[in-house]
Amino acid sequence: MLRTRVHGIVLIVAALAIGAALWPPAGGAAPAFRKDLVLGMIQEPAGLNPLTASAATDVQFMPIFAAYSYVRNDRLDLINEYVEQLPTIANGLWKTGPGGSMEVTWKLRRDLKWHDGRPLTTDDFRYTWEIFKDPKAPLGARPVLDVITGVTFPDPYTMTVKYSKPWVRANLLWLGAFSAPLPRHIVQPMVQRVGIERFAEIPYGSDPAQTIGAGPYVFKSWLRGNEMVFEANPNYHLGRPVLDRIVFKFFTDVNVMVANFAAGRLDGSPPNPGGIPLAQAIEVEDLLQSGRLSGYRVEYYAAPASEAYWYNFDNPIVRDRRVRQALLHAIDRDGIAQTIFRNKVFVGHSYFPPTHPSHNPGVRKYGYDPVRARALLDEAGWRPGPDGIRRNAAGERLSQIISAPAGDRTRERVEQVVQSQWREVGADLIIDNKPVRTILADVWLTGKRPPDMLNFSHPVDDFSDIDTWWGSWNAPPAGQRGSNHSRYRNEEWDKLIREYEVALDPRQRRELQKRFQVMWSEEVPIILLYNFVGASVLKEGLTGLRPLGLSYTPGYYTWNTRAWRWSR
User: Fold this and answer.
1) What is the pLDDT of residues 302-323, one digit of tens each?
2) What confidence tier does 554 reach under pLDDT thresholds 50, 70, 90?
3) 294 vs 215: CA distance, rounded Å
4) Is 56 inside any structural domain?
5) Is residue 244 part of a domain?
């Protein structure tokens, strides 16, 4: 995947200076620059337990403190700072055998330590593997268990995984299964107290006093609704980070966050999801260009993700594909891109946006066509009612409740546009925005109180996680955890996804990706509004923070926190 910038977007200031050397120079006194950093966020993680975290906001924090496996650098190379070598076929640590069988060997570095000074060894990975494979653990579907035939731990630094057939994520995740190890000496007593069935409730990942990792920063404190603090790990095996302290400030209202820029209280905000929305970054850019704000710069990044309305397929109204197609035809997405985003975003038509190398331009497209929308709704049996809102034969109104993170002014503006345009074709949209913590805890992760639709991003950085989002086996019953949050089920999709999971040939994988995009566009499982362009606001003098343009890849802006620094 290549990093790209959207055509026509010009950085208002030169890109972040990387400097002659990425890491601090060996020897010699460094200039006395600032050693702290304060970043503004509009979304707060639900928790930092690597086995239960799934929201995009959560996984961005993981590489800061955890021994996280699935991380890419700014060349989009897969990196893992905790192994001697990343297993690949080229270096012989990933071997293929007859009938598609595989054997992958992991060799840990011998200088790894948890934040409390205890060695990190394969014993911790063995314990994490035991938790991961336990059917009583509330971790949702784990299809990799169907292809792993054995895991061995011959010594404290070596692990070998055997597969019955190919698995595309064999070296993306630890043991091809999980993203970060758990410290056995910390987590095991917690699980013993509450039982494996309540693993998601243990304090690891939510209480900093009981959460340690092996990453470059220590998870120091978390005042929910206010801030999260990380402090430098002086014993990190690759060297102490440059900064002493990174503080993430959380805002429920993006306008308050922008006001904090004007007051100089923030050093920056990374891109969405979690950071500053594009529309507010454009506002900051206007302030800079007009001279009403100084000392900051705005940077833009094309991102393989889209702004989306996620249906809840437990609602029978949206199970009719004609209804979904009609509601998409009823939205003037080009108008939204022009009036709200000054044409810095593009209308989304395919699972992959145009900036993605696997994008298929030959898919069905849904332009703004209220006439066609009305015809499709007529065909589906929805007739205009006395109040202008359509009803089906059972008398049910064509009404949808949507929830977005409260205080996100950009999303609120788009919701209001969609609400007005849907009413023109006889559909009612009820806006019920909630604090992001409520959405993550009660709606997104567990479906305890699902609305009809959620307004969240749709990330597509790596197609290898397609099963996570759209495999029927990941669609949980209401009230249970699962990653297929819309609960969409399609047998044809399942077949293609299963085929993709064992396809190691890049040409075969690209062909499957193209086929899936055609199916996706016909089905309209979610409403793609526009393809993301991420933006960050950074104070002058802050260097090293280089977002990848990948919205969901863990660490898309935190992949190199130990290199963040001030140059003035």
Assistant:
1) 776 788 999 989 889 999 999 9
2) low
3) 34
4) no
5) no
- Identity of residue 45: P
Q: In which element (H, E) is residue 374 found? A: helix 370-379
Which of the residue ranges 291-295, 473-477, 558-562 would you say has the lowest mean pLDDT?
473-477
Who has greater pLDDT, 17 or 72? 72
Angstrom distance (rounded) from CA 428 to CA 430:
6
CATH of the domain at 313: 3.10.105.10
CA distances (Å), origin 153, targets 114, 156, 501: 19, 7, 25
Helix (H, G, I), strand (E, B) or coil at 460: coil
Question: Is the pLDDT at 123 greater than 90, yes or no?
Answer: yes
Dihedrals φ, ψ of 390, to 5°? -70, 155
Confidence of residue 448 (pLDDT cuts 50, 70, 90): low
Final residue in a domain of this structure, among 142, 158, 184: 184
C-beta of residue 140 within 8 angstroms of C-beta of residue 483: yes
Supply the pTM of this predicted model: 0.74
Residue 409 in tokens: 């002014």
Domain that holds residue 97: 78-184
Residues 178 and 323 in one domain: no
- The enclosing H or E element of 421 equals helix 409-424
- 95 neighbors 161 (Cβ within 8 angstroms): no
Chain centroid to Cα 277, Å, comes to 15
Tell me, yes or no, whether 479 lies in a domain: yes
> Is the confidence at residue 451, as pLDDT, over 90?
no
Whether residue 316 is found in the same domain as residue 172:
no
Q: How confident is the model at residue 23 (pLDDT cuts 50, 70, 90)?
A: very low
The CATH number assigned to the domain holding 155 equals: 3.90.76.10
pLDDT for residue 196 is more than 50: yes
Number of domains in the chain: 2
Q: Encoding tokens for residue 348?
A: 């989304």
What is the C-alpha separation between 536 and 525, in angstroms, rounded? Answer: 30
Residue at a domain's end among 163, 184, 205:
184
Q: Three-state SS for 324?
A: helix
Evaluate whether residue 325 is within a structural domain: yes
Q: What Å distances lie between residue 78 and 52, 61, 503, 530, CA to CA?
A: 22, 18, 19, 28
